[in-house]
Amino acid sequence: MTDAPALLKIENLTTVFGGLKALSEVSLEIVPGQAIGLVGPNGSGKTTLVNTVCGLYRPASGRVILEGIDITGHRPHSIARAGINRTFQIPKPFKDLSVYENVKVSSIHSRNHAPIEEVLARVNLREFANHPISELTAAQQKRLDLARAVALEPKVIFVDELAAGLTPGELHEVAEMLKEFQALGIALIVVEHLMGFLEQVVASVLVLSAGRTIFAGPLRNALADEEVKRVFLGGESDAGN
Fold it and tell me: In the 3-class helix/strand/coil scheme, how is the chain assigned residue by residue?
């Protein structure tokens, strides 16, 4: 997999808020079907990285390159249509629409109009297609958020703390879903605190602290890295999110 050409390249990305560097020269490469964990304590810059790549924030410097095309600073809807999508820590469904209709809204903007029933089946929500959002559990709403991201037929998905609050059984279920999306060639950047969940999905991680990269490499090596252990176990508090 590592011999394949990069699908997404993030090169020395720097984001500044009021003179404060929330991100400082962060770089990452991912190939089709690969999953990389994005790890760090609260305030380390994980969400800032996601928001910058997805176009919500404009970087001060650096580049975002998707399939060889520089999309740095493009509008969020353009980036989504180009092939980068995301889930949210707190799902934001259209509460007045059914489960099916929520996914349909995303599918309308896809290149090939992905079959909605198929997308729902992949996240085990097909039987809830006509249900209102109010009837879904928190775990099901997270899966719906994933379905909405997939319905846009992305090449890359930022999976933002999808595992938070899930039971062990639900964690395993979601991990298996993510592996299926990898098998379809979708690249995943998994923002997560739960190392046990990450071990089921990713082989490598990028670890951030105070907006900078402190480790990039195999997950098993990160767990033994002295600076990573200091940041996580020492209770370091960072400035960004």
Answer: CCCCCCCEEEEEEEEEECCEEEEEEEEEEECCCCEEEEECCCCCCHHHHHHHHCCCCCCCEEEEEECCEECCCCCHHHHHHHCEEECCCCCCCCCCCEHHHHHHHHHCCCCCCCCHHHHHHHCCCHHHCCCEHHHCCHHHHHHHHHHHHHHCCCCEEEEECCCCCCCHHHHHHHHHHHHHHHHCCCEEEEECCCHHHHHHHCCEEEEEECCEEEEEEEHHHHCCCHHHHHHHHCCCCCCCC
10/111: higher pLDDT: 10
Domain check: are 143 and 159 in the same one?
no
Provide the domain count of the chain.
Answer: 2
pLDDT digits (tens, 9 = 90+) for 5-29: 899 999 999 999 998 999 999 999 9
Instruction: Please say if the pLDDT value at position 96 is more than 90.
Output: yes
Domain with 101 in it: 90-153
